[in-house]
Amino acid sequence: MLTSLDRIEGSTVLDLFAGSGALGIESLSRGAARAVFVDSSAEAVAAIRENLAVLGPDQDKATVVRSDALRFLAGAPGFDLVLADPPYSYDRWPELLDLLVGGTGLLVAETGSPWEPGPGWETVKVKKYGGTVVSIAQPAVPVSVPPAEEGEI
């Protein structure tokens, strides 16, 4: 879905609730300039680091952070693309979206049911895959995300 929107190559990507890191790793393999992986689980962080080894030298484009998503976002720079795949029971979307709206070019949210991002966002595309709904949204007023300085994350 994202390839058709031409939004991956050269982008800065944030993989929130990263789990295995598959979404961010896929972004890097498709030409993202940089990816930050955030998960609060020590096991997930270890799995992400292990999975990043498949990228070889490109793993230098990745940063792995063990943190709660909201805590991380409170001090994070902007990202061109945010991939959010929280547990389907996640109930803090309004807070998360408030933290993202000013510094996100595009948001891809994976949920277990149809989802509307609410005020300040517009839905670009929605696809259902079995029990998963993938929604792509962008801020209602598109933002230009300045690149993060090296070492800023």
Beta strands, count: 7
Structural class: alpha/beta
Rg over C-alpha atoms, rounded to the nearest angstrom: 14 Å
Low-pLDDT windows of residues: none
Strand order of the largest sheet: 3-2-1-4-5-7-6
Distance between the termini: 28 Å
Arithmetic mean of pLDDT: 89
Number of H/I helices: 4
How much strand? 25-35%
Order of helices and strands: EHEHEHEHEEE
How many strands, what sense, and barrel or not for the largest sheet? 7 strands, mixed
What gross morphology would you assign? Answer: globular
**What is the percent of helical residues?**
10-25%
Layout: helices, strands, pairs:
Elements: E1 12-16, H1 22-29, E2 34-39, H2 42-52, E3 62-66, H3 69-74, E4 79-84, H4 93-100, E5 104-111, E6 121-129, E7 132-139
Protein model, in words:
By secondary structure, this protein is an alpha/beta fold. 22% of the residues lie in helices and 31% in strands. The chain is built from four helices and seven strands; from the N terminus they run βαβαβαβαβββ. The chain has a seven-stranded mixed sheet, covered by helices on one side. α1 links the parallel β1 and β2. The chain is globular, with a radius of gyration of 14 Å. The model has no long low-confidence stretch (mean pLDDT 89).
Task: Sum this structure up briefly.
The protein is of the alpha/beta class. It has 4 helices and 7 strands; from the N terminus they run βαβαβαβαβββ.
Keywords:
153 residues; 4 helices; 22% helix
